Amino acid sequence: MSKTALFFPGQASQYVGMGKDLYDASAEVRRLYAMASELIGEDLAKLSFEGPAETLKQTRFTQPAILVHSLAVLTMLGDKVPAFDYAAGHSLGEYGALAAAGAMSYEDAVKAVVRRAALMEDACQKNPGTMAAVMGLDPGKTEEVCSRASGEGVVVPANFNSAVQIAVSGSIVSVEEAVRLAKEQGAKRAVMLEVGGAFHSPLMASAKDGMASYLEEIAIKHPTKPVIANVTARPVQGVDDIRRLLIEQITSPVRWAQTMQFLADEGVTRVIEVGPGKVLASLAKRDMCPETLLTLDTLADLEKIQ
């Protein structure tokens, strides 16, 4: 029997202009943006719709902007949200997946991601770092490269994005060395990424305590559908586990390739990406080969399925 998974994108899916048609069409969506703007202290709608792109790339703005866009899509769909069997999100997208599955309210998901983004940006400033994409090396070789490159600072696999693409994260000098070693080991490509810090690495550790205390204040319920956790690439079990894994996620790798493999093994043949861009849809097309692949980003996308 065919199964459906909803995917929620993470950082790097943003683009200037995202969500404007949804905002213009719905008072409920406008309220979402207003709430997020008040929490951030900046006009998130204006940043999302007008940029500039460099400002929108800043972690404290990017993460809420992407989540609010995803939630705006769900808000517009209302009871016409496609039936699904699993939900999963890449990094911050896990909050969108949990909201879609009823584990937390949209408002609490936005509040949590606003706090997460602020804590992570603060960690970036305290512990400067960067990331790189390595293509064409298997996970074992990539881990070996990171181990060899970590002599002068930390560098670890951070995002297992697909079977052939892994992002590494850590101190600038060590990531640069990892890029050199990856090419030496036969990587098809190894390139530095334009990111604000060493996400999903030990350099983000200072954000964990603040996130732990904040998540204790948020009401979390058992999800109505299985949500796949980034840390384990398996369905999260129980409210306490949801909190624990969201905290661990800050310094742990995103196991997205393993998530896609798990879902494919579970019989998922229909993938729907909810939010800006097509990053996760592109990864699914290559690694999962689903029978049906949809992206719900714009108002026109929504009108096609209603």
Condensed summary:
With 306 residues, the protein is an alpha/beta fold.
Structural account:
The protein has 306 residues and is an alpha/beta fold. It folds into two domains: 3-125 and 203-305, 3-Layer(aba) Sandwich (Malonyl-Coenzyme A Acyl Carrier Protein, domain 2), CATH 3.40.366; 130-195, 2-Layer Sandwich (Alpha-Beta Plaits). It contains 14 helices and nine strands. A five-stranded parallel sheet has the order 7-2-1-8-9, with helices on both faces. A hairpin with a 2-residue loop joins strand 4 and strand 5 (165-170). The chain is globular.
Q: Biggest β-sheet: count, sense, barrel?
A: 5 strands, parallel
CATH fold topology of the largest domain: Malonyl-Coenzyme A Acyl Carrier Protein, domain 2
The low-confidence runs, each spanning 5 or more residues with pLDDT under 50, are: none
* CA-atom Rg in angstroms: 18 Å
The beta-strand count equals 9
Helix content: 40-55%
Number of helices: 14
Element-by-element helix/strand order: EHHHHHEHHEHEEHEHEHHEHEH
Q: List the strand order in the largest sheet.
A: 7-2-1-8-9
Q: What class, by secondary structure content?
A: alpha/beta
CATH superfamily of the largest domain: Malonyl-Coenzyme A Acyl Carrier Protein, domain 2
CATH class of the largest domain: Alpha Beta
Estimate the strand proportion: 15-25%
Q: Provide mean pLDDT, rounded.
A: 95
First-residue to last-residue Cα separation: 23 Å
The shape, in one word, is globular
